[in-house]
Amino acid sequence: MAFQIKDLFSLLYKTTFDILFYTTVISIIFGLLPDQFFNDFPIIPMKYDNEHFYKGLYGFEWNDHLVSKAKMIAINQVHGPESLADIGDYIYTGILGGRIVRIHKQTEQIDEIVRYNNSKECQHEKLKAGNCGRFLGLREQGDNLYVLEASTGIYRVDLRKGELIHLSKHLIPENESAIINDLVFDPKHSEIVYITVSSSKWSLDRIAWSIVDHDKSGYVLALNLSTGQSHRIADGFALANGIEITADQKYLLICQTTDFSILKVDLDNVRKIFLSKQSALKADQLEIFGQRLPGEVDNIRLDKSTGDLLIGMFTVRPYSKVLRDYLAQWPFIRKSFARTAYALYLLLDYIDAKVISNAAIEQLRDDLYTGHIVYKALPQRDGAVIRLDSKTGHIKQIFGSSKFFGISEAIIDTQGDLYYGSFRNSFIGRISKNDHQS
Ligand SMILES: *[C@@H]1O[C@H](CO)[C@@H](O)[C@H](O)[C@H]1NC(C)=O
Ligand SMILES: *[C@@H]1O[C@H](CO)[C@@H](O)[C@H](O)[C@H]1NC(C)=O
Ligand SMILES: *[C@@H]1O[C@H](CO)[C@@H](O)[C@H](O)[C@H]1NC(C)=O
Questions:
Q1: Is the C-beta atom of 229 inside 6 A of ligand 3?
Q2: Residue 374 to residue 210: CA distance in whole angstroms
Q3: Residue 87 parent element (H or E)
Q4: Domain-by-domain residue ranges, the chain?
Q5: What are 22-79's pLDDT values in tens digits?
Q6: Is 174 near ligand 2, meaning CB less than 6 Å away?
Q7: Cα 387 from Cα 396, distance rounded (Å)
Q8: Please, are residues 139 and 184 in contact by the beta-carbon 8 Å criterion?
Q9: From residue 226, how far is each of 142, 186, 192, 295 by CA, in Å?
């Protein structure tokens, strides 16, 4: 008997070893193949620097305020509330399935305002982007709501009729991909809006691969809504994301998610570039606002009552680097891994089409295609909201989470309460005024 168990273990050991060995060999081969074999999957990872993670939280204490001080609202009724807008008694947000909904702050009643695509295929409430649409950036301007849809651009929402009015038909060249992400109005010229495009290499459903890639194809557009004319004012961003104007109205701030930084540009300079169609500023020559931050920066919003800025953060490194951060200096490993995932996707897609169709196979196939397989390997915690000083850009306050990650935005509403949303979670969090100002 003992003899047989020993045999079994040695067989298991050998099988495990064989699987690991051959997977590694095949991955390396995929990594070494020329790029033209992967035209539909153009990943060319770059090296990047993240040594500042060793500084941890710059002396701040990690905490659980997003869980312990918050009340969760609309639980399991809003999936992936990415960006938030405060109008009257309601919080408006864009959620999965290409929908915009509003939540009454007192009664917590939820109304659907508009859907990007009313077709049958788009009724599934957890649908990702694609033809069904995905509203990423939201901004209130007076009583109006302006929204960005990830691939088609900017809309005004007629709140009474529940209609979308498309304001920019040709924002993106037809031969290019884009993830159109966030917007802010010029404080002096109400017809001018600044828009971030996160990547011109990947589309939204594959944004996770853009992160593995560390591509620097993101840019910022200025758009005149009266004429529809737009101009690229800055480019070369490693995932351009949230965009905001400082309290003194002198600077434009642009979040660079995978560089863990916020870049600062003089607004007068931006206007001059737009007016006289000068060539775009380069991200790597712009000034960093404050310091590099302890995680990926998503959206940024001004707290009008204090002049501070609030940012949503994907995953904080409270103490030091985490495992995946070490791959920053190893682009070949990232490429081999990504191409192996893509080859596996092709294989599963073939099996699903020709051999056997099954929900589990389809789920895995889609996770490999979109790169969400990467999210599955991350710890499901350490998201945060961070408060920055509007003048120095330095951290003033941290609200952490032990329960979830992927915080995308936080706002302070006119009552002074803090609301946060997350493209990964199915609720909105609220921390009342007295509980977040300590
Ligand atoms: C709406 O979705 C359907 C099904 O995916 C698609 O065929 C159609 O083109 C979409 N409409 C728009 C305007 O994208
Ligand atoms: C798209 O077309 C424009 C003008 O023809 C060209 O300059 C640009 O390089 C093209 N972009 C891509 C990604 O092919
Ligand atoms: C936007 O376009 C309108 C119409 O041509 C023009 O009057 C206005 O000056 C433009 N705004 C800016 C800031 O360039």
A1: no
A2: 12
A3: strand 84-87
A4: 2-43+333-370
A5: 788 787 887 788 888 788 899 999 999 999 999 999 999 999 999 999 999 999 999 9
A6: no
A7: 5
A8: yes
A9: 17, 14, 8, 38
